[in-house]
Please model this.
Amino acid sequence: MQSVLELECDGAYDSLDAVLFCVPCDTLRCISQIWKGKAPSITFTHPQNRRIAAANDFLAAEYDLVRSKLEKILKTKISDEAIEKSIEISLSAGFSLR
Model:
């Protein structure tokens, strides 16, 4: 996290439209709270136990919140098709959904 903050201070992230912080732990929660970069930050919580329906409902609501914040920042509508295409590209590049 120290490296991320040092890079932020050096302006490494200034060209980004937004920065997403998933806060599954105290370290990431703290960095999202002290972020001072030029790019706006969006923070969301990713539940640890996704085996219960309430956790999945909560996560879906968090993703909807991220989408609406990104749409506002980017001044564009993000369709379900665009999200599906992004996932497809990520998977073909070797990223995992786990």
Notes: Residues 68 and 87 are 18 Å apart (CA to CA). Strands lie at 19-22, 41-44. DSSP finds four helices and two strands in the chain.
